[in-house]
Amino acid sequence: MSKIHKKTGNICLICCEEMNGNGILLHKTRRQTHKLCEECGTAYISSVIEQATKNLRHNVRHKVNVINCPGSYHGELRNQCKKEIKITDLNVSHNSKLYTDIFRICYIMKNPNMYLCPNPECGEIIETNPCDYNKRTQCYSCSYVWCRNCQRSPFHEGKSCLEIEAEEKNTETGKLLWEKIGKGEVKFCPQCRSPTEKVKDEQGRFVACNKIICSQCRLKWCWLCSKPGIDYAHYNPENKTGCANRLWEGT
């Protein structure tokens, strides 16, 4: 180990005070050791963990377990470091108050079927079944219910995330979808709630009949009345429904 390694490894990057063998090791460069004392390390890493926890509550997992080395802020020997360090690589004592939070973040990041309860008053980790396509999720601990796809709470029972997005009209996608729904160009599958769009020609006429086959769940349903499980007989003249003789209506 070089003399600079020994010297820098005993000095906190933030407060520049000498340490007596304790502290949190961030990483080692070719010639230097970047380390924080317990007090500065807790203060610096806590803000990162707080933001990472907020992100995980919204199921945002990109780079939530990464911190930037503060070595670029102090000292001539440490300028321009800015190395990205994974929280999992930090050598944090089990007695540190950071340990539980770091363990929770690392555990969720390693398990895509694990979610952190969105309730800010709760820290429960929820395990889900990867084969369960129903996005309704309930916390075992606080009973908080949410959609793990769009993070809305309470869960939008009977409606898809896109339907809610269209009703709220808070995004460009939602506004466009709401406009198409208003024009009668988009409807939702009565079974899986996937959006279906009927394309119009230059004269404003639909280019397909009113018997729909959902591209997602393959359900056959009627564009006019949204009845599921229909076939062409649904449009026969002898059929007493309001859709008789209307298979090609609007085309």
Q: Rg from C-alpha positions?
A: 28 Å
Q: Count of helical segments?
A: 5
Using the alpha-carbon principal axes, give the shape.
Answer: elongated
Order of helices and strands: HEEHEEHEEEEHHEEEE
Q: What average pLDDT do the residues reach?
A: 86
Structural class, from secondary structure content?
alpha+beta
* Cross-sheet strand order for the largest sheet: 1-2
How much strand? 15-25%
**Reported CATH architecture of the domain at 3-109:** 2-Layer Sandwich
Low-pLDDT stretches are none
Number of E strands: 12
Distance between the amino and carboxyl termini = 80 Å
For the sheet with most strands, the description reads:
2 strands, antiparallel
Q: Within the CATH hierarchy, at the fold level, what is the topology of the domain at 3-109?
A: Herpes Virus-1
> Mind telling me the CATH class of the domain at 3-109?
Alpha Beta
Q: Helical amount among residues, as a percent range?
A: 10-25%
